[in-house]
Amino acid sequence: MQQMAVMTDNRVIRQEFEQVQGDTKQLPDGVNVSKEARRAISQAASVFVLYATSCANNFAMKAKRKTLNAGDVMSAMEEMEFERFLQPLREALEAYKKGQKGKKEASEQKRKDKEKKSSSTDENDKSRDEEEDEHMDDEQEGENEGEEEDVEN
């Protein structure tokens, strides 16, 4: 079981490395990453994220904002001399935005369909209610006519 987890971790590390570096530089097949190395990579990633966040926060503060945005992160990457990651980062951000836009559009369409179905159901209910009202009116008129005949006799 533990060996399977190690294989999965190695596969994830290899895939992430390939995404960042492209197909030209990748971990060779058969290379395994030890548990200690994975822990070190994880710690290094945490430190990097905190440092990048701190740098991005400086840009937000200069702009008198409390919220970091993508531009702040891009500027921080430049300041930290990670310019070679800017283009892949922009591409990933664009892909994320497209995915979010697609999700939003799908959600809107689903909401519109639901509203349309609901309004259609409401119209059907109104039609049904109107028919029942007409039917009841007809019955009452029939009863009233019967009473009028009794009064005349």
Automatic annotation (TrEMBL):
Any Gene Ontology biological process: leading strand elongation
Pfam families membership: CBFD_NFYB_HMF
Residues that span the membrane, as ranges: none
One Gene Ontology cellular component annotation held by this UniProt entry: epsilon DNA polymerase complex
Top-rank taxon: Eukaryota
Subcellular location field: Nucleus
Domain Transcription factor CBF/NF-Y/archaeal histone, first and last residues per copy: 26-77
InterPro entries referenced in this protein's UniProt entry, alphabetically: CBFA_NFYB_domain (IPR003958), DNA_Pol-Epsilon_Subunit (IPR051377), Histone-fold (IPR009072)
SUPFAM superfamilies: Histone-fold
Broad class of where this protein is predominantly found: nucleus
Keyword Phosphoprotein: no
Keywords attached to this entry: Nucleus
Comp. bias regions, Acidic residues: 130-153
One annotated GO molecular function: protein heterodimerization activity
Region (Disordered): 96-153
Functional description taken from the UniProt entry: Accessory component of the DNA polymerase epsilon complex. Participates in DNA repair and in chromosomal DNA replication. Forms a complex with CHRAC1 and binds naked DNA, which is then incorporated into chromatin, aided by the nucleosome-remodeling activity of ISWI/SNF2H and ACF1. Does not enhance nucleosome sliding activity of the ACF-5 ISWI chromatin remodeling complex.
Subunit structure: Component of the DNA polymerase epsilon complex consisting of four subunits: the catalytic subunit POLE and the accessory subunits POLE2, POLE3 and POLE4. Interaction with POLE4 is a prerequisite for further binding with POLE and POLE2. Heterodimer with CHRAC1; binds to DNA. Component of the CHRAC ISWI chromatin remodeling complex at least composed of SMARCA5/SNF2H, BAZ1A/ACF1, CHRAC1 and POLE3; the complex preferentially binds DNA through the CHRAC1-POLE3 heterodimer and possesses ATP-dependent nucleosome-remodeling activity.
Protein name: DNA polymerase epsilon subunit 3
Organism classification: Eukaryota, Metazoa, Chordata, Craniata, Vertebrata
